[in-house]
Amino acid sequence: MNFSALERLDQADPLTHLRDEFVIPEDTVYLDGNSLGLMTHGTQARVAETTAQQWGQDGIRSWNEHGWVHLPAKIGDKLAPIIGAQAGQVICCDSISVNLFKTLSAAFAVLDARGEPRNQRHQVLSTADNFPTDLYMVQGLQQLIGAENCELVLADEAELLADLSKHIHAQTAIVMLTEVNFRSGRRLPMAEIIAHAHAAGALVIVDLAHSAGAVPVELDKWQADFAVGCTYKYLNGGPGAPAFVYVAERHLGSVRQPLSGWFGHARPFVFDAQFEATDGIGKMLSGTPSILAMSAVDAALDVFADVTMVQVREKSIGLAELFLELLEQTGLAREFDCISPKTAQQRGSQLSFAHPDAYAICQALIEHKVIADFRAPNYLRVGFTPLYTSFTDIGRAVARLAEIMQTRAYTDPRFQTRQAVT
Amino acid sequence: MNFSALERLDQADPLTHLRDEFVIPEDTVYLDGNSLGLMTHGTQARVAETTAQQWGQDGIRSWNEHGWVHLPAKIGDKLAPIIGAQAGQVICCDSISVNLFKTLSAAFAVLDARGEPRNQRHQVLSTADNFPTDLYMVQGLQQLIGAENCELVLADEAELLADLSKHIHAQTAIVMLTEVNFRSGRRLPMAEIIAHAHAAGALVIVDLAHSAGAVPVELDKWQADFAVGCTYKYLNGGPGAPAFVYVAERHLGSVRQPLSGWFGHARPFVFDAQFEATDGIGKMLSGTPSILAMSAVDAALDVFADVTMVQVREKSIGLAELFLELLEQTGLAREFDCISPKTAQQRGSQLSFAHPDAYAICQALIEHKVIADFRAPNYLRVGFTPLYTSFTDIGRAVARLAEIMQTRAYTDPRFQTRQAVT
């Protein structure tokens, strides 16, 4: 491994200084930011201040004095430029799952308001290998309101892309897709899909779980109707951090959603018995948000203030291409079947490799302080997070992988036992 | 004020040592634990450890190594004895609002499974002055599935109690009540109401927002069907901390809920496209929970380990009765109209007083470091949290209130301006 060449790449990297903002686990190459992003020093300090001072000393007054009540919208406005949205269309709340339920219901309400007969346009189109929770939420809504009002239809991802017209048609109410596939890293051409869906009279919900903070997203330009996304992956908001939801400005006036908790009320502290939605994106809120969780997300996003998503994308591609190149150089490419698209522009910020021993290899890598992850049935996933992953990291990771394969360290029986969370 | 008598009460109090477990804001009498409970030192340390070590150093591996994946159920089992439930029926997740949506839908599913024709039994009975978010969630479900399937019916609280049979009848599907009224502190006779509802063929959802950790709750003994509750009030879980949900064991086998996210799946890491609920209370989970928020709740509950709810209740009544007695002694009782029940057993752990200047008086109290709160239209609320409120605190609070009223300090114009959160 030519580490001096890699160090030169790091020196030339315009984002290299951002690594110092993060707590990097000791002696570790962390390639799992697509599952749980690392913590910034600023986030750690903010959480400490939120406990010691805000909760500990200022107590209940902090809802006003420290702006707790405004955090969901404040974070939304910080997220907006990262996902190509004007301010006022994004808010931070709940989980992706819960936000999908809101947006699915809201999208149906938009179609109802258009006078679309539900019995003629009631299908929710998604892909069979979308992240399961997305499908489960449609199944939950379907069970609640009946398949005649909401019916999940699954397409094969490749077949969908090969013939959009065949799959998106007059019965399609909602196209619900994740831009970047969690297994393969494949990035869907959302602008094209959205244009096609709109032409067919359908609305589109985009799941940005593996996009936000990783690739340049252009929700407004694409004319997406709704989007949801995750802050704990590339946005480094902390384990299980609250998700976000986007509603296009054109829908905000009339849209409604059924998880109409008091935080979405026009005047929550009047305590009126009748729900009246607040104007704007606030109506997507439901119950009281966790302030510890919100504070962490708010602080985590500060590192994006002086970064463009174009810079992030450029380095992400650089890291991934280097990884592939080093696999070639070391001969590992023969063993690891890359199931991600060969063309960088068709990928998100990860590479996935099929290998019969993927699980054990992943465990062996982790023991050697290279943190990747495994996804069923047999994929090793490697995530690239340009804010803190260096080119040298990539070299170290591949060198350790080569050693593990050469010594067959992964065959150790203790790497075979599956853990609760894989 | 006879402070030496109050100090003797504190010395004789079997819970007095627990005050040291808490971070008490400097020089402050905190009587707002019914809105946001104080932080324990243990919770602060746990949050610091969760950031510095678990997230910061151990990253993604913490889902297994630090048991993140088990936190919702672990916390549920800690909560169970506090609310009179056997383990395995309680889980920590989401907000009360979201959990109400789950339990409302689940209760209707139970009735469907019993073969109850929905068009004959579709009403959700609640009280007009229940906490608004409870009503809003029914309204959201009603809008989604139609008033013929779910119709909110509101009764006056006093009228309901005066004649249960008149209000709970063959059209009543679900009785949804908050045990302790957030405004008045009135405690409803839940055992009696539940028996009555069951006799009429209805199911019962109990909101324990102002009960859990404050009064002895006996969900199993009462035969409650479902319950939800809050961990950020008397349970000290932190601002906006995740809520909990209880499902009676007899319903757990067959119940389903529509927010069927991947954390409620039988095998979430198999990533199957078809939802299959896990056995037991885990099926009430939806998306990925915030681990910072969960860790805080988990640590906060430790202080309850060696305390019985009977002890908590006894001291709570002692504090409230002392407050009332001191209002009498100081003549303040003439100005402050106590709208809470006169009989201690009919109250939760708060007292509410109507006063035309309640808002300004509350602000003046806060400036004098007595933290109470205000609820529209004109109530001053005072909460008693036996784990950290002392009898001396009560004396200091009443003395400061007397001074504010005597000097008319509350008439200062700066106390008139309403804040975002009241």
From TrEMBL, chains A, B:
GO terms for molecular function: kynureninase activity. It comes from the Bacteria. Its EC number is 3.7.1.3. SUPFAM superfamilies: PLP-dependent transferases. The keyword Hydrolase applies. Homodimer. Catalyzes the cleavage of L-kynurenine (L-Kyn) and L-3-hydroxykynurenine (L-3OHKyn) into anthranilic acid (AA) and 3-hydroxyanthranilic acid (3-OHAA), respectively. The modification N6-(pyridoxal phosphate)lysine is found at residue 233. Its cofactor is pyridoxal 5'-phosphate. It comes from Pseudidiomarina terrestris. Pyridoxal 5'-phosphate binds at residues 96-97, 131-134, 178, 207, 210, 232, 262, 288. Keywords: Hydrolase, Pyridine nucleotide biosynthesis, Pyridoxal phosphate. It is an enzyme of class 3 (hydrolase). This is Kynureninase. Belongs to the kynureninase family. It holds the Pfam family KYNU_C. NCBIfam families: kynureninase (TIGR01814). PANTHER family: KYNURENINASE (PTHR14084:SF0). InterPro entries: Kynureninase, PyrdxlP-dep_Trfase, PyrdxlP-dep_Trfase_major, PyrdxlP-dep_Trfase_small. It catalyses: 3-hydroxy-L-kynurenine + H2O = 3-hydroxyanthranilate + L-alanine + H(+); L-kynurenine + H2O = anthranilate + L-alanine + H(+). Pathway: Cofactor biosynthesis; NAD(+) biosynthesis; quinolinate from L-kynurenine: step 2/3; Amino-acid degradation; L-kynurenine degradation; L-alanine and anthranilate from L-kynurenine: step 1/1.
